Structure formats: structure tokens, C-alpha cells
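[Solved] Which block belongs to which protein?

Original post:
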Amino acid sequence: MRVKICCISSIEEAELAVAYGADALGLVSQMPSGMGVIPDARIRRIAETIPPGVSSFLLTSRRDSQSIVAQQREAGVDTIQLVDRITPAELRRLRSCLPGISLVQVVHVTSSDAIAAAASVAPFVDAILLDTGTPDGPVRELGGTGRVHDWDISARIVAEVACPVFLAGGLRSENVGQAIRRVRPFAVDVCSGLRTDNRLDERLLASFFEGVRETDAA
């Protein structure tokens, strides 16, 4: 089971996550709400230190391809995580302008409508990330909520789409094993479940990886 540690805020946090076995690190740019946001200049400094074999994800809420391309080139990451809805036309432009850069589209699991949403975007991206949020709410939450969504819907998406699926949303050491067994995702993604006073907590990090490894061994 692959693990993505999101909301990395410093080189030290990146090094800690990699030391415990993270397969990918998430770096959060400007968002309408939520935790983990850091300046673009710091994102680049952290991305430059991420070793080969560990994917660097830029989380962006931008929706136009021209702006996203510029942001990726400034950040120097190898993966773009699109946390807001992007049209197929813009996804095609991104693919054309960013050869070799992976595209991961977030689908917020608010109802069974997420199944159709995931199926419609899957042909245009390298992976889908299922998260909890309120993209249409008065306060737009596009991730980092710390809340669990309906894993039965997530499991149906994993079964029905052809591309890899990441599972996020309220994961922590106590429930990650159950989430993996229920959903069978390609990877799990965690942010708030590993942070204390807005810092990556090594004790929680170690416990989370233990929960993942126990599931792998079962």
C-alpha cells in the first residue's frame, strides 16, 4: 500500500516523512480554506529536496491550464493535484503543455454522484483522489477537513474506474486499516490525522505507518 503524506510545510517535515517510508509528499498552495497552505517559494525549496522515487505533489485550486502550467514550472514538482473541478478541455491542455507531469484529479465524495464524476474525469488523468469536502458550500472546503466520507461509495469508484485511486479524508492510525480493507485503494493520503499544533507529529506518523503495514501483512 502506497502512502502520500500531505500538508508538508518544511524541509524537515519532508525528510521525516520520507524516512518513515512515504511514497509521495503533498505541498499545498493557496486554497479558499483548509490547513497546510504554504507560500509558492517554499513549495519549490521543499520540492528541490525530495529524493528520486518519492513523488512531489503540488495541490492547486486553480482551474485554468495556463495558470496551472505556470505554477507547476515555478514549483518544480512532478505531480499536479487538482483540488477543484477542471473541464476536460483544460485537462487536455494540461496534458499537452506538461508532458511527463502526472495529473491527479480530486473528486469530493459528497453523494453517490461522485461515482459518475470520477468515471467522467478518469480518461483524462493519471489518478483520482477521493476526499471529503464541500466544493459547493458557502465556505468551499477542497480538502484537509479531517472528516471521513462514505467508503462504500469510494469502494464502488475503485471498482469501476480504470485509473489508480488515492483515498483521503479523515484517515488516521485508528482507521486506516479498515479504510484499506473496505476501499482497496491504490494509495492512502493523510494530512490532519498526522498533525499536532499544525506540525507533523512523529508519534502519529509512526503509528499510521504501522497501521498500513499491518494491513499489508494481513
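(Second protein starts here: sequence line, then its C-alpha cells.)
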Amino acid sequence: MKNFYWSDPPGQTAFPVAKAGYPLIFAAAFVTIVFALLGFTALALTCLVITLFICCFFRDPDRVIPNKKDVVVSPADGKVVAADITENSPYYEGRCVRISIFMSVFNVHVNRVPYDGAVKDVRYHPGKFFAANKNKASGENEQNAVFIETEGGKTICVVQVAGLVARRIICGVQEGDKLVRGQRFGMICFGSRLDVYLPADTEPAVIVGDRVEAGTSVLGYLS
């Protein structure tokens, strides 16, 4: 058995960029060219830096997915800011394992499916825009929850949480969709957080402070 696999076809470019970034990149590049043609060198250079930053933010690198039984992979790049047992979640009935990942503006922001299954429900909640590395962001910020049912009948919930400067949550799946572990399913623009709710008997593989990568890093193992 192969140790890794591709959940999505590999990109055909050396620097893959998420489609959501194209309008911003083209707009910034256009303004840069206009300033350059008008001879406003300082403004042109500033806009060039902004254009390069936007390109970097919307980068969408290919990832190989670990091919191991019962592995739950990270849905986001970033830093683990919470890994605990909770009983008071609006997204999970009873006790569950919650793992939260904070994405700074320097992380890849494309989100990936943590485990194979079917989408049971997608719930969007408007809210505030507190800093995403704060615990209160999970309860009060704008968020979008995707509920996934595994073949074994277990439920996993992935919640995209907007951050202080994030103003756009993108989710490309809907109820009934069949998902593959590591598959791209959305992104959040400009700094944010993802909360993953897993069955209480899940064996965590990360602790607070760990750095993880979407699709590649193992968050835990389902029992």
C-alpha cells in the first residue's frame, strides 16, 4: 500500500494560486502598471509589493495525503491554539475533542477535508471579528460549519472562523457531497481560525503550540 496519495490532481503550474485570489491579483497588478506608466515610481513599487503579497497569500500548493487507516488530517496550515475535551459545543452533541488552528496572514489559507465522508449539513452564522487566536472567537465570530459523516457513522465538524481582518469565508461544498480526506473545500481570506470537533474517543496527535499543514499533518486517530 502506498504511504501517500493525491486527493486532488496536482497543479500544472510552478506556483499554484487559489482562484479566489485572481481578481485581487489582477486589480493590484493593473494599478501597479498604471502607476509605473505614469512615472510614479514610489507608488508603483508599493503596489508591486502589495501584488506580490496577495500572490503569496493566495498560494495553493499541492499536498500529498497520508494513506493510513483512521487518520484525521489537519484542515488548515497554522498553529494549534487549543486541543482539549469539551462538552459545551453548539456543533457537537455530548463530549468531543476540539482542536483549534490559528492561521496568520503568512500561512496558506486553503482549507482541506480532514476525513473521508459525506456532508450532512453546512451552517453559516454571522458574527463579530475578534482576533482569531482568542478563544472567544470560536463562539462569537462569523463562522461556517461543515458536518461530515464517516462511513462508520461518526460525525466530524469543521468550523471556518473569521478573524480580525478576515472578511470572507469561502466554502465550496454542500449537503450530500462526498468528500475525500485532504480534498480542498474552501478558504478564509486574510487571517483566521479553524475548529475541528471529533468524537470523544479520538486519540489526539497534536498539542498546543504545534505547527501543522493542511492535508499533510495528522491531528489524531479515530477509534
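Accepted answer:
You had them paired correctly. Confirming on the second one: The two ends are 21 Å apart (CA to CA).
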